[in-house]
Amino acid sequence: MGLLLDACVSSQNLLKPTLENNRFQIALDKFQSSAHYIVRHKSLPFDILVVKNKEQYTALQMRCTHNDVALNFAGKKLVCTAHGSEFDLQGKVLKEPASASLTTYKTSVQDQFLTIYLS
Ligand code: FES
Q1: Which of 24, 84, 92, 110 could cysteine-pair with 17, CB 3.0–4.6 Å?
Q2: 65 lines ligand 1 (CB under 6 A)
Q3: Ligand 1 mutation pick, 65, 67, 94, 96, max ligand atoms within 8 A of CB
Q4: How confident is the model at residue 119 (pLDDT cuts 50, 70, 90)?
């Protein structure tokens, strides 16, 4: 059941925006229907999870800091199937063996768009 739900969330909330000047832009009105999206691009080694919490946006690299394995989004947390680490939606470690927080990307909001800066 959990796997089915995760797959459903991922397919509905997967975005493949254009990368321009090392930035992604997402229309803010997207966040009226969901508070989270997964950004995927062929140039990225790992997806990015974008989370809206009140009026704050967080962009997290979905890479486990324990051993560089892709994380799964599980609704209220990110889970690593390799050795069981878990992270909250701010990127903080909830469960070891990972000890370091997830990599975050700078974001800004302007003109009804959220911008995610890769560098
Ligand atoms: S690689 Fe994620 S817990 Fe080990």
Answers
A1: 24
A2: no
A3: 67
A4: confident
Query: Global pTM?
Result: 0.90
| Residue 75: CA count within 13 A, CB half-sphere | 6
In order of their start, the domains of the chain are 2-117 (2.102.10.10)
Structure tokens at 8: 């459903």
In angstroms, the CA 8 to CA 39 distance is 15
Amino acid sitting at position 76 = K
Ligand 1 atom closest to 71 (CA): 2
Q: Mind giving me the DSSP string for 61-108?
A: E-B-TTT--B-EE-SSSEE-TTT--EE-TTS-EEESS--SPPPEEEEE
Question: Atom 1, ligand 1: which residue's CA is nearest?
Answer: 67
The pLDDT-based confidence of 3 (bands split at 50, 70, 90) is very low
Instruction: State the distance from the centre of ligand 1 to the C-alpha of 65, rounded, in angstroms.
Output: 7
